[in-house]
Every structure is written in C-alpha cells, then in structure tokens.
C-alpha cells in the first residue's frame, strides 16, 4: 500500500532521536541502575552482558551503551514513553526493528522480568524484535538464551 500510495509514507514510519525517550521518561536512570545492580548480583546476566559486548573492548562506556539500548527499547515496547501525537495518531503497536540480531541482555531482562513491566501495556509486540536483515520476527515469549 505504501509503495503504491506514497502519501501514506509520512504516516507509516516515524523517527525520533533516541534521546527523546531518555529525556521524557523519569524512570530512565532508575532502570539503568536496576540493570547495573543486576550485573553484580546475577552472574548469568553478567555473562549475557559480556557476551553482548564480546567484539568490543570490555569497558564502562560499552557496557553503559548496551544498558542504555536495553532500557530505551524496553521503555518503548512497554509503552512507558508517550510519543508526540503529531506522529502517532493511534498508538496501536510499537515494534523495534534493527538490521541484525536482538540484544541478549534485552531478552534476558524481559524473560526474567528484571525491569518493571507496564501492566497497562497493549502493545502486541511488547516481547518482539524484528531482524530486518533476515526478515524475521523474534518473539521473546518463544525464545530462551540457549538459542
């Protein structure tokens, strides 16, 4: 439909800076701290973090970047951040899309409910991630970390 009727493009896809979420959710810092605490108290989570950072230098900057990615995607999927109404008329779903695989730390924190989940979330993709390069939808409810 979008290809045939280009006038729908501006309504189909919206882009916001990553910082929009960080600046518009008061619990962002608390969620980062929950994950940082989990690294020291949950050996499996610590291993998952190290696996995610595997091809990069193991330093605070890379770990903080990974934690930020995990928290921001969680906040978006859980509908804990409101988007401008000029962009989203009806907030019926939110799907995280990247060219590549999901972040294992995100899967782990979701499965183990490390970060608080929104009891009022209506997003059908709250536990999903779309790998654009492989054209597959990863459903966290149907996955485990051994995959």
Would you give an account of this structure?
The protein is built from six helices and three strands, in the order αααααβαββ. The radius of gyration is 16 Å and the shape is globular. It has one domain. Helix 6 links the parallel strand 1 and strand 2. The chain is mainly α. It has a three-stranded mixed beta sheet.
Strand order of the largest sheet: 1-2-3
How many β-strand runs? Answer: 3
Contiguous uncertain segments of 5+ residues: none
Distance between the termini: 35 Å
| Biggest beta sheet attributes | 3 strands, mixed
The succession of helices and strands, N to C, reads HHHHHEHEE
How many domains would you count in the coordinates?
1
Over all CA atoms, what is the radius of gyration? 16 Å
Instruction: Estimate percent helicity.
Output: 40-55%
Average pLDDT, rounded to a whole number, is 87
Residues in β-strands, percent? 5-15%
3D shape: globular
List the total number of helices: 6
- Coarse structural class: mainly alpha
What's the gist of this structure?
The protein contains 6 helices and 3 strands. It has 147 residues and is mainly α.
Salient structural properties:
147 residues; mainly alpha; 3-stranded mixed β-sheet; 6 helices; 3 strands; globular
């Amino acid at each position: 439909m979008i290809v045939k009727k280009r006038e729908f493009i501006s309504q189909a896809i919206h882009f916001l800076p990553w910082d929009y979420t960080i600046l518009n959710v008061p619990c962002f810092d608390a969620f980062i701290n929950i994950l940082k605490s989990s690294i020291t108290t949950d050996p499996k989570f610590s291993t998952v973090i190290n696996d995610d950072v595997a091809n990069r230098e193991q330093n605070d900057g890379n770990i903080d970047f990974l934690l930020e990615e995990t928290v921001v995607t969680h906040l978006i999927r859980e509908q804990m951040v409101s988007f401008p109404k000029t962009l989203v008329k009806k907030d019926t779903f939110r799907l995280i899309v990247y060219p590549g695989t999901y972040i294992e730390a995100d899967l782990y924190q979701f499965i183990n409910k490390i970060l608080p989940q929104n009891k009022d979330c209506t997003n059908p993709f709250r536990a999903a991630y779309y790998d654009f390069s492989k054209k597959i939808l990863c459903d966290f409810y149907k996955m485990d970390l051994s995959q």
